[in-house]
Amino acid sequence: AQSVAQPEDQVNVAEGNPLTVKCTYSVSGNPYLFWYVQYPNRGLQFLLKYITGDNLVKGSYGFEAEFNKSQTSFHLKKPSALVSDSALYFCAVRGSQGNLIFGKGTKLSVKP
Amino acid sequence: DTGVSQNPRHKITKRGQNVTFRCDPISEHNRLYWYRQTLGQGPEFLTYFQNEAQLEKSRLLSDRFSAERPKGSFSTLEIQRTEQGDSAMYLCASSTPSGQVFISYNEQFFGPGTRLTVL
Predict the structure, then answer these.
(1) Chain segment A33-85, per-residue pLDDT in tens
(2) Do residues B45 and B31 make contact, with C-beta atoms less than 8 angstroms apart?
């Protein structure tokens, strides 16, 4: 069965520092992986996805993610965090019906 | 605004009552998904539609839940005889513009959700 795991409930970063939000996956077949962000009282917003090809995927708002097949990971990264990046981040893998299977989420807190 | 919309945004009901939520997907998107999100968890898949056809239901979707998508446009999710365990955020998402072949890695666009509280 497809699944993703986000091992950190919360990540704290100082503004201007690089950030990493971790995600590992378990799939049968080719993984299609996604990152979404959720701000309070707003819906999930798509950030980026990995399909195939380059292991470094660039997405919205300066975020990128690194796909690592040997470690079955898809970590979200940003070189310089902003206070406005503070939100809940979800990693997801495509399920058998085209649905998304989400991790539990990681709360990112960026302090000035 | 041409995004996914959901109504109502909040619903408070008493246990045993029926509730209905509405989702309006992005115009001409032929796939529509319903998810449920509880506090501290990621969204969990409930069901999805390809146009007006409901193609899959998760085991989370008990027989008290029913979803429709008449004419392949908006969708409704009804919960009958609500229980306190039904309290959650119900999210709707759409993908795949009409006329395009479904691609399994198309991103989904989510609405703001309907927060249900069952007292």
Answers:
(1) 999 999 987 889 999 999 888 899 999 999 999 999 999 999 999 999 999 99
(2) no
The number of beta carbons lying within 10 Å of the beta carbon of residue B24 is 17
Contact B42 A49 (CB under 8 A): no
| Local confidence pLDDT in tens for the 119 residues of chain B | 579 999 999 999 999 999 999 999 998 888 999 999 999 899 999 999 988 899 888 888 889 999 999 988 999 999 999 999 999 999 999 997 666 666 666 889 999 999 999 99
Nearest Cβ partner of A94 from B56, B104, B112? B104
| Coil/strand/helix, residue B98 | coil
Kindly determine whether residue A102 and residue B42, on different chains, have CB atoms separated by under 8 Å.
yes
Residues of A (45-84) whose Cβ lies below 8 Å from B: 45-46, 49, 51
With beta carbons less than 8 A apart as the criterion, state whether A13 and A104 touch.
no
Q: Which of B83, B113, B108, B119 is nearest to B22 (CA)?
A: B113
Could you tell me if A50 and A33 are in contact, meaning their C-beta atoms sit under 8 angstroms apart? yes
CA dihedral B24, B25, B27, B31 (to 10 degrees): -140
* Binary contact (A95, B45; C-beta < 8 A): yes
* DSSP class per residue in B30-45: EEEEEEEE-TTS--EE
Spatial contact of B45 and B53, defined as CB atoms under 8 Å apart: no
Chain A: give the shortest CA distance to residue B57, in Å: 10
Structure tokens at A33: 């992986």
